Amino acid sequence: MKKPAKPSPARSKLVQGAKPAKTKQSALPKTHRSLCPINLALEAIGDSWSMLIVRDLMLRGHNSYQGFLRSEEKIATNILADRLLKLEQNGLITKTADATDKRKFIYALTERGADLAPVLVELTLYSLKYEPRVDMAKEVIMDMQKNKQVFATRLTRNFTPKTRSKPASKKAEIDPVDETLSLF
């Protein structure tokens, strides 16, 4: 019977003795399954509903509870309430009282939430690669495929909050000359 091979000294240092990189304090919960960057991201946005809410805020102009309920995916009210709270706790969205009706709330992306634009672009391109039947204009697809970084930057150009925990200073607007975002 063979003895199991010992891990190389270099690998041992990387895995067992690795110290997490120092980062700024965040609004993330204090307890995590691990400090792996992928795990941390998935804890914040690792379910489909959270990303669809971010999509609706960023691309479809939905900013209210009722607006999210009207999305074609038909999220259940209890799940929507849970995900909105989770996104707010993780610093991805803000919730403020509606100026016209204090019983309602307006949701907005924070800079941290707007920084998910490249993730949405990559998820879209991944889907296009394996599922050609998508509900998206061909012009938008070609524009996104041509230069995904520029496309993602255009998605976030109107989100200019002062800090990662503050709401966007103005609502995203569609440039009348460039209607790409309205086609999404």
Automatic annotation (TrEMBL):
Residues 36-135 form the HTH hxlR-type domain. The keyword Transcription regulation applies. Residues 1-29 are annotated as: Disordered. It comes from the Bacteria. One of its GO terms (molecular function) is DNA binding. Keywords: DNA-binding, Transcription, Transcription regulation. This is HTH hxlR-type domain-containing protein. It comes from Asticcacaulis benevestitus DSM 16100 = ATCC BAA-896.
